[in-house]
């Protein structure tokens, strides 16, 4: 899979972001996307081939792997990156709509199409809420699917067609668990950044409205 589109999307959104938003983009680029491409993808590359059970029963090993890993960690992580970045498209589309509207009317309708005010501010706030919500959903999904944020060395399987309870061994469990903790930590960091930016923008907008009303009263 090529991640070029995701990189272009985040780069495009970066110029409409606040300082906190630019930190979020940097975290996604450096601590999530680059780590995924450079290291994590290779660790899970042969996870099915390296999953071993002490039984010769045909089909038992495949069934046990599917039972304990219904969705691959790395594919779920990739899906999380895509889904979490998708709300940024709302901001890009809104700016494109403003630019197209100015072009059709052949006049200046906005001080700047990319300035966060009015409708664009609402769109930006919605994108932050969606990104935070998706992060939480995927963290809960990881926790539910794998019974916690851990990768065991040994799992016991008694799913048919296994003749009895068999021992199955997961390859590189410590290394995988380190990257899983890293995934959780970066997700939590992104949630904190999104909520901080959301709070900052709401506070800034509320303060601006209050000062405007205060000035009107004095006049």
From TrEMBL:
Keywords: Cell junction, Cell membrane, Gap junction, Membrane, Transmembrane, Transmembrane helix
Sequence ranges assigned to domain Connexin cysteine-rich in this UniProt record: 134-201
Membrane topology: Multi-pass membrane protein
Main location: other
SMART domains in UniProt: CNX, Connexin_CCC
Gene Ontology cellular component annotations, sorted alphabetically: connexin complex
Any one GO molecular-function label of the UniProt entry: gap junction channel activity
Family: Belongs to the connexin family.
PANTHER family reported in the protein's UniProt record: CONNEXIN (PTHR11984), GAP JUNCTION BETA-7 PROTEIN (PTHR11984:SF26)
Role summary: One gap junction consists of a cluster of closely packed pairs of transmembrane channels, the connexons, through which materials of low MW diffuse from one cell to a neighboring cell.
Protein's name in the database: Gap junction protein
């Amino acid at each position: 899979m090529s991640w070029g589109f995701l990189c272009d999307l985040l780069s495009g959104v970066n110029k409409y972001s606040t300082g906190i938003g630019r930190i979020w983009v940097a975290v996604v680029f450096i601590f999530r996307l680059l780590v995924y491409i450079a290291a994590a993808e290779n660790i899970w590359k042969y996870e099915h081939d390296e999953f071993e059970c002490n039984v010769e029963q045909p089909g038992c090993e495949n069934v046990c792997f599917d039972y304990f890993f219904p969705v691959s960690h790395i594919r779920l992580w990739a899906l999380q990156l895509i889904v979490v970045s998708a709300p940024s498209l709302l901001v890009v589309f809104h700016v494109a709509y403003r630019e197209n509207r100015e072009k059709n009317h052949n006049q200046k309708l906005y001080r700047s199409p990319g300035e966060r005010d009015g409708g664009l501010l609402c769109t930006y706030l919605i994108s932050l809420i969606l990104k935070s919500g998706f992060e939480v959903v995927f963290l809960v999904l990881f926790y539910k699917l794998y019974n916690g944020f851990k990768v065991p060395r040994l799992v016991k399987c008694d799913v048919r067609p296994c003749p009895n309870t068999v021992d199955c061994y997961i390859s590189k469990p410590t290394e995988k668990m380190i990257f899983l903790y890293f995934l959780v930590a970066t997700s939590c960091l992104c949630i904190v950044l999104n909520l901080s930016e959301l709070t900052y923008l709401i506070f800034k907008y509320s303060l601006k409205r209050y000062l405007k009303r205060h000035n009107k009263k004095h006049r």
